[in-house]
From TrEMBL:
Assigned keywords, A-Z: Electron transport, Iron, Metal-binding, Oxidoreductase, Transport
Molecular functions (GO terms): FMN binding; iron ion binding; riboflavin reductase (NADPH) activity
Positions of the Rubredoxin-like domain: 178-218
Key word Electron transport present: yes
Entries under InterPro entries matching the protein: Flavin_Rdtase-like_dom (IPR002563), NADH-dep_flavin_reductase (IPR050268), Rubredoxin-like_dom (IPR024934), Rubredoxin_dom (IPR024935), RUBY_RBDX (IPR048574), Split_barrel_FMN-bd (IPR012349)
Cofactor(s) the protein requires to work: Fe(3+)
Coiled-coil ranges per UniProt: none
Matches recorded under PROSITE patterns: RUBREDOXIN_LIKE
The protein's name in its UniProt record: NADH-FMN oxidoreductase RutF, flavin reductase (DIM6/NTAB) family
Top-level taxon of the source organism: Bacteria
Length: 220
């Protein structure tokens, strides 16, 4: 089976949020879809290992913040490459409460839902939610998963339902490998005009905000 066929499916980039008691928490996701229009229902897929999964189970509610192409890419890293069990991800991200749920301000739209059903798979829970509230926050263009990979140059967390391990490519004579600096946390590949060695010591990964020290040399 050629898993690369799945890359032709279309996805967005979302922040799924809920409450951990009185504290907001959430994670990055790319699998959210409208199931029905009347009544409006939405389905999301969250990995069993994500702390957000447990919190949605307890609260019975979730919100979807739809990110735009001009949203700060570090939001994706904040919610995608660390666990809400250890840190409050919303400490560094502006949010507001809409429909009684925490919503990221940089999103172009949001939807809040009450869980009405769920389905378990080997690795993920698919939550079905009845829409409680929704609104458009800006005229921004919604970010697609393809845009995140090709333009933002971000990588998928291993907990993502669409994660596919990179397969080694056979090198041809025309495709000589080059040395790049890659973030060991989120997989971001530095491709700037300034040589990586000349970047200031306080340089941080634009996706996960980790320091320059976590970057490693790799042939890509």
């Amino acid at each position: 089976m050629n898993n690369n066929a799945f890359r032709n499916l279309s996805y967005g980039v979302y922040i799924i949020s809920t409450w951990d008691g009185e504290r907001p928490t959430g994670c990055t996701a790319n699998s959210a879809m409208q199931i029905t229009s009347s009544p409006a229902t939405i389905a999301i897929s969250i990995n069993h290992d994500n702390y957000t999964n447990q919190c949605i189970e307890k609260s019975g509610r979730f919100a979807i913040s739809i990110l735009a192409e001009d949203s700060d890419p570090s939001i994706i890293g904040t919610f995608g490459f660390q666990t809400g069990k250890d840190v409050n991800k919303f400490d560094s991200v502006a949010y507001e409460v809409r429909g009684e749920m925490p919503v990221v301000k940089e999103g172009c739209a949001y939807v809040t839902c009450e869980v009405i059903n769920k389905m378990e798979t080997d690795t993920h829970t698919v939550f079905l939610g009845k829409v409680v509230d929704a609104d458009v926050l800006s005229a921004g263009v919604p970010m697609t998963y393809a845009y995140y990979h090709k333009v933002v140059k971000g990588k998928s967390p291993k907990n993502a339902p669409t994660y596919i391990a990179e397969e080694p490519k056979e090198e041809t004579k025309e495709e000589a490998k080059s040395i790049k600096y890659v973030c060991s946390v989120c997989g971001y590949v530095y491709d700037g005009d300034i040589p990586f060695e000349e970047l200031p010591d306080d340089y941080k990964c634009p996706i996960c905000k980790k320091p320059k020290a976590v970057f490693v040399k790799k042939e890509v």
